[in-house]
Predict the 3D structure of the following.
Amino acid sequence: MIEISNVRKAYGDTIVVHDVSLQIPRQGITSIIGPNGAGKSSLLSMISRLSPMSAGTVTVDGLDVTRTPSETLAKRLSILRQDNRVGSRLTVRDLVEFGRYPYSKGRLTAEDRARADKAIGFLCLETLTDRFLDELSGGQRQRAYVAMVLCQDTDYVLFDEPLNNLDMKHAVGMMKLLRQAADALGKTIVLVLHDINFASCYSDYIVAMRDGAIVRHGTPAEIMTSDVIREVYGMDVEVQDAQGRKISIYYI
C-alpha cells in the first residue's frame, strides 16, 4: 500500500499541493484526475521521490521514500515520467534492458535478459527490438518505455500522463495493456490522466484533485457523477442529444 500523510509542496509562497493524505490500495489501477494545475503530477513526483516534499511523509509498504536507499526503492517502485526522452541513440532492446539496472548494475544476467524478453513480448515489440527509438512512431516509442518500466519488475508502477501524444487507437491500446499488467502481473498502477473517459473505464479507484487538494476519491461509480465532475472541473458535464435527452460526456 502507498500511504500519503499530510504531504505539501510549495514553491516559495505558492503552495501547489495542500496537506494531502491518502491511501492508495494495493493492486489494480488508481487514476488521479483533475484540471490543469490541480497538483496531480506534483503529487506523483513526490510519491516517487523525484521531487522533494515541503512537508509530510510517503511510505510504500511501510518504507519511507525519503529515507529508503535508492537501490531498495527502485526494486519496489518505478515511474514513467512525461519527459521520458533519452539523450543517446538506443535500440528498443537497449532501452528495455535498462529497466534491469537496479538489479544488474549494467552487467546483465540470463535472468535479466529473460525478463526483458518477457516485457518485450508483453508489449508486442518483438519485431522492433533492433530498431532505434528515433525510428519509431510515437505509439511504438511509448510502448517501448512502458516495457522498460515493466522490465524493472516493481510491485508499484507510476505513470505521469502515459497517453500524451497518442491518438485514440493507441491510447485505447495503452490502457488495455496497463489493465492487463494490473490483472495478469498483479501490479499496482497509479496514473495521472487528463481523459476522464479512460479513467472511468479502466480504473479500480479514482482520486480527483483540484487546486492542490483532493476533492473526492472512490470507485469510478462514486466519482463519475455529474455532481462530482462539476465540483472537480467547475463545469456542467451533461449535454442533450438530438431528441433532447440528457447524456453524459464522460462515458465511452
Observations:
- The two ends are 30 Å apart (CA to CA).
